[in-house]
Write a structure and sequence with these properties.
Elements lengths: L1 E10 L2 E7 L4 E5 L6 H13 L13 H4 L10 E8 L2 E8 L6 E6 L4 E3 L3 H7 L5 H6 L2 E2 L10 H15 L6 H18 L4 H19 L8 H38 L5 H26 L1 H26 L2 H8 L3 H48 L6 H109 L2 H15 L7 E3 L5 E4 L4 E3 L5 H20 L8 E4 L7 H14 L4 E5 L3 H8 L5 E4 L1
Parallel strand pairs: 3-13, 3-14, 8-12, 12-13
Antiparallel strand pairs: 1-2, 1-4, 4-5, 5-6, 6-7, 9-10, 10-11
Helix pairs in contact: 5-13, 6-13, 7-13, 8-13, 9-12, 9-13, 10-12, 14-15, 16-17
Length: 620
């Protein structure tokens, strides 16, 4: 594989920026802070993506660190590369909630599905971890990072056991373990006891649901409730009719200023008394002698007053002579009798006036009563009989109203009783519905128990076969783990040979071989002893780890036709000129793939020029 061109729309300090690469060695020169590490990170992000963290860590994660300085909405870019004769155009948008990953096959002019399988083939099986620990070498980071040991063991074990890195012993073990767990879940050691328990539950439930409380009487209660409802409607209709009649009767009685039978009786007695009184008074007022008596005393009194006067004026001598009394005495007696007669006349007149007044008031009262009840005021015997007839009708009406009110009271009681029964039936229906719901739940439980019982019968029949299968899986796991441990314990042998060949070339023959333990801790083989990295210079240490990285990359990429490009980001700052010269010459000869060398010094280009080694210079 080789990188052809990258286009940065927005990434860190770069905006609308592009770089073209060529075959072989590409030297990307730029002073500090010109963006070499940004381009290095951009290439990795295009290949593997970049994820933003959540919470507080998002403020310092890689996503936030390389957000565009200008126009943050254009957090994206693309990379053109060639792999096995095909040119691919890889585009990524890193913007949150707008992530996009597209791959175009420019040779065929078609879009490629960026699946995991396709990316593994395009990247020669490198994951982001192995990419960071092998071909991508950052500033002062030739040493491998955590996670590389397990991945190398994984690859080497697969190669040793199957000859292919596409198979995974770990996945096989996990599959067998998952399969065992799946089968174990179906194995029920206590199936017989569980089966017996479930049979007991089934019998108990069947006995319980056969009880009378679960007999369905909803239809019976509903029919009875409907009957009660019909009776209530009939009573309500009767009540409405009686209420209308009673209301009309009360309205008639009210119009006649009556409310009870006692009022009617009192009214009759009153009219009878008034009518009799009126008759007596009318008879008394019509008697002739009363008129005579009202004038006769005054006539007699006048005669007596005249006689008395004459006796005093003309008959005084006669009275003295023949009667031998005083004329004044005769005058006094006659005048006194006249006064008494006048007083008697006055009393008669007063008596007659009182009779007339009583007659008028009695007549007025009778006329008012007759007018109120008969609509005319004639005081006659016929009207009196009509009044009695009217009172009898009102009395009958009053009795009817009272009887209707008594009936209404009884109907109210009946209606209340039916309402209570209606409520009782509603409660009974609700209880029945609850019982039926409980019955359905119990039947469902019973069905579940029977299903479980059937399942347990099948499990009991298969328990022996499952146990045999579990034993076979345990044997397979034991064999696979034993083989895996044996291979992993010797995985350094695969790495030592390749790393030794590389260290010999990198150091110009100063060191001819090296060893690596199972934790990727390297050591150098001198002529007389083993030399640890603590005993050599920083430049040599970097060379050792470079050899280790390249050896790991070679092993992981296997027999791929095209190697991934090597990327160095100021990786040779600890190298002296001689060591750098040897390393650059060795890289040009030993690695037939593309190399990207980011540097802030000009000595790499100068040394390559002096050594007449071809390279492509890119200045940032």
């Amino acid at each position: 594989m080789k990188f052809l061109e990258l286009q940065i729309n927005g990434f860190g300090k770069f905006h609308d920026y592009s770089i073209s690469f060529e075959d072989g060695l590409n030297v990307i020169y730029g002073k500090n802070e010109t963006g070499k590490s940004t381009i290095h990170t951009f290439i990795r992000s295009i290949l593997f993506g970049i994820q933003s963290q959540r919470g507080r860590s998002s403020n310092n994660d890689l996503y936030s660190k390389y957000e565009p300085w200008e126009n943050s909405g254009l957090y994206q870019g693309s990379l053109r590369l060639e792999h096995e004769g095909t040119v691919y155009h890889i585009e990524r948008c890193f913007q949150r909630k707008q992530e996009e990953f597209r791959i175009t096959d420019e040779t065929a002019g078609t879009e490629v599905e960026p699946s995991k399988a396709f990316m593994e083939r395009l990247l020669n099986g490198l994951t982001e971890t192995t990419y960071n620990n092998t071909i991508s070498i950052g500033q002062l980071k030739s040493a491998t990072e955590e996670g590389m040991v397990s991945e190398l063991k994984h690859y080497i074990t697969n190669m040793n056991t199957s000859g292919s890195m596409e198979l995974s012993v770990t996945k096989s073990c996990n599959y067998l373990k998952n399969k065992r767990a799946e089968i174990s879940a179906r194995l029920v050691p206590d199936a017989a006891r569980s089966y017996t328990t479930i049979l007991g539950e089934i019998k108990a439930l069947e006995k319980e649901i056969s009880g009378p409380e679960y007999e369905n009487q909803i239809i019976t209660y509903q029919r009875q409730q409907q009957d009660v409802q019909t009776q209530m409607e009939q009573i309500q209709t009767e009540k409405d009719q009686l209420l209308l009649q009673t209301s009309k009767g009360r309205e008639v009685l009210s119009q006649n200023h009556l409310s009870t039978a006692e009022d009617i009786k009192n009214c009759q007695q009153n009219i009878q008394s008034l009518f009799l009184k009126y008759g007596r008074l009318e008879d008394a007022a019509g008697q002739t002698w009363r008129k005579v008596l009202s004038t006769l005393p005054f006539i007699l009194a006048s005669i007596l007053f005249i006689t008395a006067g004459l006796s005093l004026v003309r008959g005084a001598e006669f009275i003295r002579t023949y009667l031998h009394v005083s004329p004044l005495l005769i005058f006094g007696i006659l005048a006194g009798i006249a006064v008494l007669l006048c007083m008697a006349g006055i009393l008669v007149i007063l008596k007659n006036s009182r009779i007339k007044r009583d007659l008028a008031s009695t007549k007025q009262a009778l006329e008012e009563i007759f007018t109120r009840y008969l609509d005319h005021s004639d005081i006659t015997q016929e009207n009196l009989q009509l009044f009695y007839k009217k009172m009898a009708e009102l009395e009958l009406l009053c009795n009817t109203v009272i009887q209707s009110e008594d009936t209404l009271s009884k109907l109210d009681g009946d209606f209340s009783y039916l309402q209570t029964r209606q409520t009782d039936y509603s409660q009974a229906i609700e209880n029945q519905q609850k019982s039926q719901w409980e019955l359905e739940k119990k039947l469902e439980r019973l069905s579940n128990y029977k299903t479980r019982a059937e399942s347990l019968r099948s499990i009991l029949a298969e328990n022996e076969r499952i146990s045999q299968e579990l034993s076979a899986i345990d044997l397979a796991l034991e064999t696979l783990n034993t083989l895996s441990v044996s291979v992993r314990n010797s995985f350094g042998l695969y790495l030592n040979q390749t790393a030794s060949e590389l260290i010999r070339g990198i150091t110009g023959g100063v060191y001819t071989s090296m060893g690596i333990d199972e934790n990727l801790n390297p050591f150098l083989n001198a002529k007389n002893k083993l030399v640890s990295l603590e005993q050599v210079s920083g430049g040599t240490t970097d060379q050792v780890y470079l050899a280790l990285r390249l050896a790991a990359a070679k092993l992981i990429q296997g027999d791929c036709l095209e190697r991934m490009p090597l990327i160095f980001d100021d990786s040779f700052v600890l190298y002296d000129d001689e060591r750098l010269k040897n390393t650059l010459k060795w890289l040009s000869d030993a690695y037939d793939g593309q190399i990207l060398l980011f540097t802030c010094h000009q000595r790499e280009a100068q040394m390559l020029t002096a050594s007449q080694l071809s390279y492509h210079l890119i200045t940032l």
